[in-house]
Design goal:
The chain is of the alpha/beta class and 296 residues long. It folds into 2 domains: 4-208, Spore Coat Polysaccharide Biosynthesis Protein SpsA, Chain A (Alpha-Beta Complex), CATH 3.90.550; 222-295, no CATH class. Helix content is 43%, strand content 17%. It has helices at residues 17-25, 45-52, 69-79, 98-109, 143-148, 162-165, 182-188, 211-220, 223-234, 241-257, 262-267, 272-295, and strands spanning 4-10, 32-38, 59-63, 84-87, 115-123, 139-141, 157-161, 193-203. Strands 3-2-1-4-7-5-8-6 form an 8-stranded mixed β-sheet, sandwiched between helices. α9 (223-234) packs antiparallel against α10 (241-257).
Length: 296
Amino acid sequence: MSSITILTPTYNRAAYLPRLYESLKAQTDKDFLWLVVDDGSEDDTEALLASYGQKDVEICYIRQENGGKHTALNRGIAEIRSELTFIVDSDDYLPDNAVKTILAYHEKYRGMPGLCGYSFLRCHGDGRVNTAYFPSDELIGSYAQVRINGGIGGDKAEVFYTDILKKYPFPVFPGEKFMPEDTVWMRMSGPYQMVHINKNIYYCDYLEGGLTNTGRRMKVHSPRGMVLRSRVYLDDPAIHMKVKAKMMLLYQIYGRFAGMSAGELRGETGEKVLWYLCKVPSFVIWLMWRRSLAAE
């Protein structure tokens, strides 16, 4: 059994998968399985992956009815048996030493109590680090402490201990096809920490039509997921008040898009004072968003 499963949820990305496949073929350490969960693609994704065979990269393919990236991740994680899980999007790719780097750090930190995995850097194709470096190399801390309270935005390359990741499935709401990944990362950051490593193991170039660029409309169509995501931040006593203020605004805005009443929203958060402070500005922003989306 491989030490790492590279988990790729995909939807209509047959044009981009070859670049990722070539980067996997080029890995200097082959101790990995590539698990692709096809979220109901309507292109030739299945045929493309079948054409690769098993000679250069060990591939496992699963197809499901379209339900959103988070449901594809749940399906894949449920099947994984390797010690580590590395989520790599279908329109991204890896430097040829990515697997070797991950395993080297895992050998160093394996057995340390309280860890749920490792967070590495992502870079753009031109080599620029996505958003920011970590404040120090091999910094050990929770996602909430290092990334959120530390103000380090942008995507990083997370590698998780599979047995822990399985304990935190992505919440699923009927009819909604989006759930931000930080909803789960935040839930894990209460009991668990990560090693934050200033080494690039991931190349990303955000594409038109990708989840990162589809923006507000996608989130508005999954409002209950966005409400839950905001509440995870609001319920964490370690999160800075500046972050909580932003999340309270989003909590009320998406709550209105979800058709939730003011009483229902107020009753589900312990931040009562902040709820009242954000009530009027969140209503104004909600009106602006609704008008803007209607005009698109």
